[in-house]
């Protein structure tokens, strides 16, 4: 059996092919509706235009696969052909009618896109979560259906807990799946956002991000030990100092701490690698 597919889907995917014995009908475009379980939310407009040009010249060579629904048909496979046919002004599309359950439709849509690598990491995560929620599947059960490991499913689903701005960047490809996985392991929202900004602005690799996270964890452990000793005599921080810290964080795009003792103190700027240190030094020299 192919490692890419679960047992149920091995049987489902071949059923999307059109055979000589199949009855092909012309379905009015107005009677067709897209698959509501389609995990792909964005389509490459240029590729749709190119397909529309091909359809103008040669017609729709491969019929789409549909199922019967109230007041028409629902597209199971072939949404790009449907969109391209609309674009070039066709009023009908050749189609083959098949019978599928909702769960099969969701699974087919997900597998089709995964095989073509059409989905970004967030779309995959949402598709996995939707399948589990709608059909009460565990991660283990879903992993068997789609032919992926349970840890693979878990790694994607964890991405859904990331802040919206980071998920948007993952969807656009400015933050990779590897970066997103590392960020998902951080509990501090502010740190997540600061590191995401450094990934984008400094072009950090996944390894550089992981090294930065390790350093932050080490600093956190040190601060935790210091905090235990000072906790009993801790005082409410000066709002002016907190506001100043926030302004410096925005200015230097990194974690800033102001430690005050009566009329003196120190300002700490964190850097995460040599390139980040050089960036901070250049900014400080410019301000001098």
From TrEMBL:
Q: Where in the cell is it found?
A: Cytoplasm, Nucleoid
**Compositionally biased spans, kind Basic and acidic residues:** 220-229
- Residue span(s) of domain ParB-like N-terminal: 25-114
This protein's UniProt keywords: Chromosome partition, DNA-binding
> Which biological process terms from the Gene Ontology are attached to this UniProt entry?
chromosome segregation; positive regulation of sporulation resulting in formation of a cellular spore
Which Gene3D superfamilies does its entry note? 1.10.10.2830, 3.90.1530.30
Q: Where is this region: Disordered?
A: 220-239
Among SUPFAM superfamilies, the record links this protein to: KorB DNA-binding domain-like, ParB/Sulfiredoxin
**GO molecular function per UniProt:** DNA binding
Which parts pass through the membrane? none
Q: What is this protein called?
A: Stage 0 sporulation protein J
Species per Swiss-Prot/TrEMBL record: Paenibacillus sp. BIHB 4019
